[in-house]
Amino acid sequence: MVRELLEVENLTVEYKAPGVSIRAVNDVSFRLAKGDTLGLVGESGSGKSTLGHAIMRLVDPPGTITGGRIYFADVDLLSLSSEEMRKVRGKRIAMVFQDPMSSLSPVKNVGDHFVEYIREHDPNISKDSALAIAKRIFEDLGMDKSRVTDYPHQFSGGMRQRVMIGLALALDPLLIVADEPTTALDVVVEAQILELLKALKKSYSASMLLITHNMGVVAETADRIAVMYAGKLMEVSDTARLYSRPMNPYTEALLGSIPNILLNDQVLKSIPGMPPDMAALPKGCPFSPRCPYVFDRCRVEDPPLKPVGDGTETACHLHG
Amino acid sequence: MRGVVEAKDEAIGVTGRLLRPIVESFGPGKGRGFLIAGTAIIAFIVGMSLLAPVISPRDPTMYFVGPDNSPPNSQFPLGTDQYGRDMLSRTIWGGRFMLIVAVIAVAICLAIGVPLGLASAYRGGMVDKVVSLLMDSMYAFPSLILAIVVIGVFGVNAVNEAIAIAVVYIPSYYRVIRSQVLTVKELPYVEAAKSIGSTSRHVLWKYILPNVAPSIVVVATINFADSILTTAGLDFIGLGRLELPDWGVDLYYGRLTLPLGYWWVILFAGLMIVLSALGFGLLSEGLAERRERG
Amino acid sequence: MSFLEVSDLKKYFPVQHGLLEQLTTRHLSFVRAVDSVSFALNKGDIFGLVGESGSGKTTTGRLTIGLVKPTSGSIKLGGVDIPGLSGTELRNMRRRMQIIFQDPTASLSPKLTVGDAVADALKLLEGLDNASAKEEVIKMFEYVGLSPAAELYGRYPGNLSGGQKQRVVIARALITSPEYVVADEPVAMVDVSVRAQILDVMRGMHEKLGLTYLFITHDLAVAKYLCNRVGIMYLGKIAEQGDTKEIFRIPLHPYTQALLAAVPVPDPSAKRDKKIPHGEIPDAINPPPGCRFNPRCPYATDVCRTEEPPLRAVDGAHPTHLVACHWAEKFL
Questions:
Q1: Which of A28, A127, B186, C285 has the fewest other C-beta atoms within 10 Å?
Q2: Complex ipTM value
Q3: How many helices and strands (H and E) does chain C possess?
C-alpha cells in the first residue's frame, strides 16, 4: 500500500435547501494508519457524524459530497460505482451506530442477522458456517453463544450494542467507523464496551474511526485525535500530546470546560458565546467570535490545517 | 437565518406576529402549490358570492328576463333556464346559501367538537372511553341521510341543514383533536406548565390548544367541502330551498331539461360546485403537506 | 430540623398487562422505581442524586415536588407534608419549589414566546399583571445571561440555541424565587462547551437566591464539580451518601467504586484500577434478593445474597457518610 489505510483529502459535504447552503464538512484532510484508532471529536453540529457517513458514502440528500477524495486502501471511494461501494461496505469498512435498535430488525433473531449479513457478502458460505462464525464472535464479545437464537428485544441495551459490534466484525473488515457507539449507554456498560473494543482491536487487528463528543472516551481508546468545529478540522494530534499540550485554542478551551472526576477543586472555564450558526458562519476562522486569543487576521482569513511538528497539525494563525 | 426572523418580528409588531404563520405558509416548501391554488379558488368563490349584489347583471330570481331555454349567447353569456332566468346572475348568486350553511356547520362543529376532544382526551379514563365510543358510533352515519330526515321533520332552512351536517362531522374533529392531545399531553412542556401552577383549564387553553390548533384547520377545510356537497345533494333531490338562486337548485331544474339538450343550466352550476369542493380540498391538502414538513 | 426530609419513600408503578394476562395472573407486578429511600437536605445544600438508568433518581426528584404521588413514605419540605397537599394547596406551594427540566426544547411550548413562558409562572403563582411580570422576567433574563433580554423576550424557542433555551428553563424555574429546586439532568442535553456556562449560572443563582438544589445526574464528574453532598442510587435504593469530598476520597460501596472506575476521564495518562463489574442493571420489577448489587459485585458473599444491607454510618468514617453494604468496613 502506498498511502495510509485511510487518507481523506479536502473533503467537503454540503447541505442545500432553498435559500441556504451549509458546509457540514469543510475541506477536511486527515490520515488513519493501519491498526490505529483515530478519535474524531466535536460537539453537535461540528460535522463529525456527517464526516463518518461520508466515508461510507452514506450521506443522504439534501446532503452531497461536493469535493475531495477518500482514499481507502489506495482506492478513491468517491470514484467507485454504487455497486462497487456496496461491496466495500461491510466487507472492508463496517459501521457501528449509536442506536442499535434502529439497525436491528425486530422480527429476525440475532443469529439470522449474522447469517444474512455474512451470506449477502459471500453467498458461498453455508448457513451453518455463517452461524458458527456468529457463535465464535459471541464468545469473543463475552456473550453466551446459546443466545444466538434470541431476538433483539430480548437483549439489554449494552448487549445489543455488543451484537452491533459483532456484526461489524463478522466480515473481518479493515476499518470500523463507530459513530457515538456508547453515548446511549449507562456509564458502567460504556466502560465494558470500551474495554471490549480495546481487546477486540488487538485480536481482530481492525483500524477504527471513533466518532464522539466525549473527550474522556477518546482519551482512553484513541491513538490519535482529530478535533472538529463548525465542519472544520481544528487540530490533529497524538492523544497524549493533545491533552498535555493542545495547539489550538478551541481544543484548549474545550479541555478547560469539562469536569475531570480525578481532580479536586477543579475550576472550569466555560467557553463564552454560542455554538456556531452553520447557516451564517463568520468570515475567517469559525472559532474567532469565541476565541480568547483572537486578533485581526483571524476574523479575515480562515487558517488552514498545518503541521507544527511532533505529528501535530493545527488550524490556527498563532502557530505557523 | 435566526437573525432574519427576529428582524421581521420586530418590524411588524404584535398583529404581524399573529399573521406571520399565515403569511409564512405561502413560503417555499412542500404543499405550496396546493395552498396557493386552493386559496385562489376559495377567494374567487367567496369574493364572487360576497359581491353578488354589485356584480350580478340582473336579478337572478326574475322570471323571463329573456327567452326561455336559450343557449349561451352575447346577451346571456351563460344562457337562460326554463323560466327565462339569467344563468350568469344565478351562477354569481348561487354560492351564497351553500357558503352560509357551511359556515354555520363548521361553527357548530368547532364549538362542540373541539372542547369535547380537548376535555375528553385530557381527562382520560372512563370518561374518555365512553365519549370515544359515542363518537365512533356517530362517525359511520352518512350526513346525507341524516339531513334528509332532519329536513323532512323540521323543514328546510340554513340552520337545519347546518345542524344535520355538523352532527355527523363532529366526530371527525373529536378524533383528530383527541389523538393530537393524547400525544401533546405527555410532552415535557405540559408537565412544565403544571409545575408552574397551571390549572387543567390553563394547561388546555394556553399550552395544549395552540399546539393542536393546526390540525383543526385541516379538518375544518374538509368539512367545508363536504358541507357544500351535501347541500348540493339535498337540492338535487328536491329537498332544498327551491326558490333561492343556488347551484344545487339549478342542478335540480337543469336535470329536468337536460334530456331536451339544454346542457348549460346543469353544466355551469355543476362546475361551480365541483370547483368549490376542489378549492377546499386543495387547501386542506396543502395544509396537510405543510404540517408533514414541519 | 432539616429543610427537606424524605423518609422511607416508595413509588411502585403497576406494570401494564394485556387483557388475557390480567384475567389469568393472580397478582399484578410492579416496577419498584423508588424502594425505600431516605435522606435529608439542609438549607443551601447542592445535593447530587447520582445514578444510572433505572436507579429511580428522576422519580425521586419528581416525588419531592409533588409532580408524582408516592406509594408510601413521607416528604416534608420546610415542615410541610408534600403528598398530603390538596390540588390548590400544592399549586400555591409551587412558588417555593420548582424544577429545571432536562430537555430544553421539549420543555418549552413552541407556540409561546420564551418571555411569555416565563411570565406565565409569575402570573399564575404571584398573580402579577402582564406589565409587571414582563419587567421581572427581563431582569431575570439578564441574571441568567440571556442578553439582550428585552429582545430575547419576544423570541420563540425555535429561534434560540440549546444553551439559551436551557437558560430560559432555568429562568422559569427561578422566577418566583423558590427555596427548593430540583434540577433534572440540566446539562445532559446541552452542548459540551456550553455546559460549564449553565453550571455557572446555576451556581450563581444558588448564591444569589440562597437556593437548595437536588441535582439529579448520571454524570459523576459534574456531581463532583457542583455538589457539596451526593447520594448514589442503584435500582431504587440509596447505596451510599455523604459529603462529596468524603465519598470521592473513600468510596465504601462497591457500586460507587465501580462508577468511579468506569467514568471516562479526559486524561490519557491517568492510571486507574479498572475493576468494571460485569452484567447490566437488572429490571426493577424483580430485583435480586438481598443486596441489589450482589449479582454484579466482585465481593458478594452469602449474606449479601440473602439480607438487604441497611444504610448506616461506618466506624472509622465520617458520621454523615452512610453506606448500604455489609462489608463497608473492608474498604476503609
A1: B186
A2: 0.88
A3: 12, 12
The minimal CB distance from C263 to the residues A216, A244, A253 is found for A216
Q: What are the pLDDT digits (tens) for A152-184?
A: 988 888 889 999 999 998 888 999 999 999 998
Give residue-wise pLDDT tens across range A209-218.
999 999 999 9
Domain spanning C4-96+178-265+272-331, CATH class: alpha beta
| Res B13 pLDDT > 70 | no
- Is the distance from CB of C198 to CB of C144 less than 8 angstroms? no
- Asked if C125 has any chain B CB less than 8 Å from its own CB, the reply is yes
Q: Where are the domains of chain C?
A: 4-96+178-265+272-331
Contact A19 B29 (CB under 8 A): no
Q: Model-level pTM?
A: 0.86
Using an 8 Å Cβ cutoff, are C160 and C152 in contact? yes
User: Average pLDDT of B208-226?
Assistant: 90
Taking CB atoms and an 8 Å limit, are B197 and C94 in contact across chains?
Answer: yes
- H/E stretch holding A9 reads strand A6-17
DSSP string, C80-114: EESTT--HHHHHHHTTTEEEE-S-TTTTS-TTS-H
Burial of B186 (0-12, 13-18, 19+ CB in 10 A): exposed
Q: Which residue has the cell 330570481?
A: B61
**Mean predicted confidence (pLDDT) in B57-82:** 85
Per DSSP, the three-state class of A210 is strand
At B149 the pLDDT is 86
Give the DSSP letter of residue A47. Answer: S
Domain boundaries, chain B: 15-50+94-293
Task: List the one residue out of B146, A264, B255, A44 whose CA is nearest residue C248.
Answer: A264
**Triad C25, C27, C33: Cα angle to 5°:** 120
pLDDT in tens, A77-96: 999 999 999 888 888 999 99
Coil, helix or strand at residue A301: coil
Q: Residue C309: left (phi > 0), alpha (psi -120 to 50), or beta?
A: beta
Q: What is the DSSP secondary-structure string of A69-121?
A: EEEETTEEGGGS-HHHHHHHHHHTEEEE-S-HHHHS-TTS-HHHHHHHHHHHH
pLDDT > 70 fraction of chain B, expressed in percent and rounded = 89
The domains of chain A are located at 33-50+79-224, 246-320
> In this complex, do A158 and C280 lie within 8 Å of one another by their Cβ atoms?
yes
Instruction: Round to whole Å and give the CA distance between C198 and B251.
Output: 69
Cβ distance C276 to A157 less than 8 Å, yes or no, reads: no
Fold of B15-50+94-293: MetI-like fold (1.10.3720)
Domain A33-50+79-224 grouped into CATH 3.30.1330.130: no
The amino acid present at A231, given as its one-letter code, is G
Chain C residue with the nearest C-alpha to that of A276: C161
Secondary structure class of C70 (helix, strand, coil) = coil
